[in-house]
Specification:
alpha/beta, single chain, about 40% helix, about 190 residues, Rossmann fold, about 20% strand
Length: about 190
């Protein structure tokens, strides 16, 4: 949630915001930007189909900085489109990688299912570093809070000559705990 909070604080009126999956939409609702910015969501059937494709097409056409906040399953599902974005210096991606569909861990009943990790949340140990570097993206893997300032500077650098991909590695168990506590807090 820290990465999304910091990102929302830095959004300016030259940015269009593209939200991919359920988790990124929920986080954006919790951490709304300080100014109005066009916000687009391509949810598909389960929130994963075509998010990157839509954001790239929109950003290519408008020339605006297109900031995509996307979960790992959505990203890996649609990442082949990044081949067409290798020269788009106006593309910024914040990839929230919690090793699977972490949102499913917050749903009562489903969170206790024996098939959750393998078949529903599609748990994995994949990262985007090799793919991003091969395509010429400026890339940073964020694994702790001390790296957030560097990540924000990269995401909002107006002088970059390459698309930017920030991959925030999070833990789905910790994410579940944060969300559950937040929802308890707002019910008071």
């Amino acid at each position: 949630m820290n990465m999304v909070q910091h990102t929302m604080k830095r959004i300016n009126d030259m940015v269009s915001l593209h939200l991919g999956n359920s988790m990124s939409v929920r986080l954006a609702q919790l951490c709304q930007p300080t100014i109005f910015t066009p916000t687009l969501c391509n949810r598909g059937v389960n929130g994963i189909e075509g998010t990157l494709s839509s954001a790239i097409g929109y950003s290519e056409e408008t020339g605006e900085i297109g900031l995509v906040i996307i979960g790992d399953l959505s990203f890996f599902y649609d990442m082949n489109v990044l081949r067409h974005a290798r020269n788009m210096a106006n593309l910024r991606i914040l990839l929230l990688n919690n090793g699977g569909g972490g949102i499913f861990h917050t749903i009562k009943g489903l969170s206790e299912a024996s098939a959750l990790d393998e078949y529903v949340a599609a748990g994995h140990y994949t990262n985007a570093e090799g793919w991003a570097k091969e395509l010429g993206f400026d890339y940073l893997k964020v694994i702790n809070v001390s790296q957030i300032k560097t990540a924000m500077d990269m995401l909002f650098n107006d002088d970059t000559e390459h698309p930017v991909l920030i991959e925030a590695i999070t833990d789905s168990t910790f994410d579940k705990h944060i969300f559950n506590n937040y929802y308890k807090y707002i019910q008071l």
